[in-house]
Write a structure and sequence with these properties.
mainly alpha
Length: about 230
């Protein structure tokens, strides 16, 4: 049986709008990240976040299949292909994120080790939870997002050059994930799934902290320059 372009049997129009727009905003985030990499030779996404995100996208692009329709199957794959470029530049410039004097080769070995470890863990997590319960990688995706939102803050706080970080990208990232959280709350299959909701709410709070911290640091830096 061929998969429909969009699954309207298990998902409502509002489900598709919330999830689809949220996913599209993340595509724009990836493009902005790539533009800034070319400009600054620095990867705005924390290296550990790239590893876990790429592991999830690898699995849900090629091993597992979303039940939301072919639009989303290829939507996930568009994430994967864009992320391949981010991975390439992380292998090239990722060592710049590290506080220790680590060689590019050592950072590349660490990147691959983390990616493989996440692949193994997320594969078995998906088999146990996502495939039978969600059909589109929601639980594993939110675990990854929670990790990503956490390490974004720590990278920001330890990086001196704030030009590397995009305020517009931060808003798009936070809004995209928030729309997906609203999708999870609205989707009939997940009514009352407070564990999933809590992951989404915690991620939203971390995204808000990241945006506020970025604004505060940039304002503080501007004030220091003006005084100087």
């Amino acid at each position: 049986m061929l998969m429909p372009f969009v699954n309207m049997q298990d998902y409502t129009l509002l489900d598709h709008l919330l999830f689809g727009i949220g996913c599209f905003l993340w595509v724009i985030v990836y493009i902005l990240v790539l533009i800034n990499i070319r400009k600054f030779k620095f990867v705005e996404i924390p290296m550990i976040a790239v590893t876990v995100n790429f592991a999830w996208e690898t699995l849900w692009s090629w091993t597992f299949v979303s039940n939301m329709g072919m639009l989303y199957v290829w939507g996930y794959r568009s994430w994967f292909f864009l992320d391949c470029f981010i991975v390439f530049f992380t292998l090239k410039y990722g060592y710049k994120q590290l506080q220790l004097n680590v060689s590019p080769t050592a950072s590349r070995i660490a990147f691959v080790a983390f990616w493989v470890a996440w692949l193994v863990m997320l594969y078995f997590f998906s088999v146990k939870f996502d495939v039978p319960q969600s059909g589109m990688g929601g639980y594993g995706g939110y675990w990854c997002n929670l990790i990503m939102s956490s390490v974004y803050i720590t990278l920001l706080l330890r990086t001196k050059n704030l030009e590397y970080f995009s305020v517009f990208g931060a808003w798009l990232k936070g809004l995209g994930t928030f729309l997906v959280t609203l999708f999870c709350i609205n989707h009939a299959q997940w009514k009352g799934e407070w564990f999933l909701y809590s992951l989404g709410i915690a991620t939203a709070l971390l995204d808000a902290v990241y945006i506020c911290t970025l604004y505060w640091l940039k304002k503080k830096q501007t004030a220091n320059v003006s005084m100087g």
